[in-house]
Every structure is written in structure tokens, then in C-alpha cells.
Amino acid sequence: MSKKKEAFISTFVQATKAAAKNPAGTARLVAGTTVLLRAKDQGLTFDQMRGVFDDLTDYGDSELTGFLNISQGLISGDIELPGSIK
User: Fold this and answer.
1) Which of 3, 24, 50, 63 could pair covalently with 59 via S-S, beta carbons 3.0-4.6 A apart?
2) pLDDT on residue 84
3) Phi-psi region of 67 (alpha: psi -120 to 50; beta: other; left: phi over 0)
């Protein structure tokens, strides 16, 4: 078996284990990203989002922008990290 295939299998197994251990966490990540992107698309500012979602109050605009950009890229497949599932 090639090293590339071994790495893919290992990553897939690790990701599957992580999702199985905490399926609610995985779902919250995808759902949270979706909710925040929808709010952004509807024109809400980060200040307005922090007013609606109390858990965001500790995060600045640049942190929220970075989270959304990376999350959206990973979910869409536009960002592929070495060792990640392709």
C-alpha cells in the first residue's frame, strides 16, 4: 500500500473516530458555520451577531472572519490541509 493511501486511511479513521466520539460537536460546527454565514449574507454585522449570539461576545471581528473563512473553505473543499480527507 502506498504512503499516500496509508495516510488517507489513517486520516479517515481518525476523523471517523472524532465524529463518532462527539457527533453533536461535529454537527454544531457545521450548523454554527451555516447560521453565521446566513446571518452574514443577510447583512448582519459582527456587532449585531454578538448581540444575538451571546457566545460570540469574546471574539473580535477578525477572529470571526477567520473562523468563517476557514470553516467555509473546509466544508466546501476549497481548503485542503495536508493529511486531510480529499
Assistant:
1) 63
2) 57
3) alpha
- Mean per-residue pLDDT, 64-73: 92
Give the integer Cα–Cα distance in Å for 26 and 5: 25
Tell me if 33 sits within 8 A of 66, measured CB to CB: no
Residue 14 cell numbers, joined: 481518525
Classify burial at 77, counting beta carbons within 10 Å of its beta carbon; exposed 0-12, middle 13-18, buried 19 or more. Answer: exposed
Q: Where are the domains of the chain?
A: 23-80
Contact between 83 and 3 (Cβ < 8 Å): no
The residue length of the chain stands at: 86
Q: Which triple of cell numbers denotes residue 59?
A: 471574539
- Which grid coordinates are listed for 75? 466544508
Read off the pLDDT of residues 32-54 as tens digits, 9 standing for 90 and up: 999 999 999 999 999 999 999 99
